[in-house]
Amino acid sequence: MRDAAVGSKGTFSHTVSDDDLASRLDATLPAVMATRVMVGMMELAAMDAIRSYLGPGESSVGISMDVNHVAATPPHHRVRAEAELTGVEGRRLEFKVRAFDEIEEIGSGSHRRVVIELAKFNERLKPKLKNQQLASASRGADKSG
Description:
Elements: E1 9-15, H1 35-50, E2 58-69, E3 78-89, E4 92-100, E5 105-117, H2 118-125, H3 131-144
Antiparallel strand pairs: 1-3, 2-5, 3-4, 4-5
């Protein structure tokens, strides 16, 4: 990874669909965007902030998330997540993350990621894969190589 600049920013936007609702997980939950969706959007905003610094064969994985989800968002609202790189220590990255719907801020917090080499990561993952997953992963590697 090239030296990532503290202060680098990224965004990710998404319109809330029925599949994003908490009520899809459990019918007793309200029909509003689930926290898991907001967290995923924050992760994608963080990836956007560092994408240009990643070298060939590199990616990143989330290692921690500490966020508050403070406002509900109904279906069909456009939501925007933002991430700002606030710290770099070797391959470990720290971000300030926030999310907004069309009306207000709906969440904020901090997020940490670590840069990985995909080939090594996938090799370490192989013992955990089920037979079907292993065959699929092998076919994907054949196509890229």
